[in-house]
Design goal:
Chain lengths: 240, 240
DNA sequence: CGGAGTGGTACA
DNA sequence: TGTACCACTCCG
């Protein structure tokens, strides 16, 4: 009768062991508890407690205590829930407790294709072209001089009505922060959208046309990163 | 240095004593352990152990081992969480995500008496006179004959619009199941309520007038219980 | 008094 | 509603 088992945990510093124990009785019988043992033998029963043992040196942000694995998507989830980093959303009368947008779902159990308005948990409403609400806002440095925005590569083209370079950058950076999946840009063509914006916009993708990234592009970017790291290293030496 | 003290424990059969010992050192310094001593001097260190000593004859379900007192609310809490035993509740349009009832709270931190609508966790809404939604439903026996409802004592009077004996019984039994506190009936007078039902109803109390229970009533009820037990004992003998 | 094991609760 | 955390019980 194998009720517990200890194992190494590759996501943690060496010496830590992980144990899974099945509850044998009581109301919670059958549930499992996960414990860890530190290299010095201390039993650790929760993530906060583990953080206390590991100290500042080890970042548990992406560590899933239950599974014992690093969860790379969890970090984005956490950011998304930080309201200071949420997108500006459509402003509507607050008496509507339901999100204003609804989602059509398909009842797969039924043979005919039935569509229905789904209630319950939904994605929060997204405003198309919300970036325009940020127009006129700028990041400034400590002396309140406006920081120059980045330039866009020539092959990154905006999709939508009168989007500034700034808007497009906001759109891209938001998509990088908010999306769990790949960030690819809009699949539809530029002409159709400028006539009827919103008709076919994918609110989860930035407002840029899909762009072909070549091996060349990747190489060039890698070189830039390497060069930047080299310069940072130089600068650090200067500080010692 | 008084670290322990023994005392009688009125919630237990006579002869049982209770002792409280403060832990002096270690990680748990300052915490207390509670022990009991049975009439024959045996030390008892836990509730399961006590149940073993007392046997079937004494019900420890409501006994709080730590405090040594009977806790009437604990057993009812367990029942209340069984959704099959919840009251029929008001049916309202589901678009209202907020409970329809609100609770006024007093901001005690403020010197003026401020009232405010409290959001967040609240008691579930209670429908006044919800019993009427059960009208026409009856318990039946295995041959689907309707079981005769109980009769009410003459001094138990309904409070509310056209409540049947059945409604009143439902109301009383629900209150006995759901309430943590004493079940006393409505404090207001019958006349006012039949004109404006709901005006001053206490939804936590059954819809009966407050009734004086005399020593006589209690005696009579005790006799009934004793008689019922005697007859049960007879019947059990017949089965052997 | 320690600690394994379960319960209870706040939070998402 | 489920889950994570931690308080608590019970017994060594």
């Amino acid at each position: 009768m194998e009720l517990k088992r200890q194992s190494d945990c590759p996501s943690l510093p060496p010496g830590w062991r992980r144990e899974e124990v099945v509850r044998q009785s009581g109301l919670s019988a059958g549930k499992t508890d996960v414990y860890y043992y530190s290299p010095d033998g201390k039993k650790v029963r929760s993530k906060p407690m583990m953080a206390r043992y590991l100290g500042e040196g080890f970042d548990l942000a992406t560590f899933d205590f239950r599974t014992g694995k690093i969860n790379h998507s969890s970090i984005r989830k956490r950011i998304r829930q930080d309201s200071s980093l949420s997108l500006p959303i459509r402003q509507t009368a607050s008496i509507f407790k339901q999100p204003v947008t609804v989602k059509r779902i398909r009842e797969d159990t039924d043979s005919k294709t039935k569509t229905d308005l789904k209630h319950g948990p939904q994605d929060p409403p997204k405003q198309l072209f919300w970036e325009k609400r940020l127009q006129g806002f700028h990041a400034v440095d400590s002396s309140e001089d406006i920081l120059k925005a980045l330039d866009l590569p020539r092959n990154v083209q905006g999709v939508g009505p009168e989007l500034s370079t700034e808007n497009i950058l906001q759109s891209i950076s938001a998509a990088l922060h908010m999306n769990n999946g790949p960030v690819m840009g809009q699949g539809n063509n530029k002409q159709a959208l400028s006539k009827n914006p919103g008709a076919n916009i994918d609110a989860n993708q930035p407002h840029i046309q899909q762009t072909m990234i070549t091996e060349e592009d990747i190489k060039r970017q890698e070189m830039k990163v390497i060069e930047a790291r080299r310069r940072l290293e130089e600068a650090m030496k200067g500080l010692l």
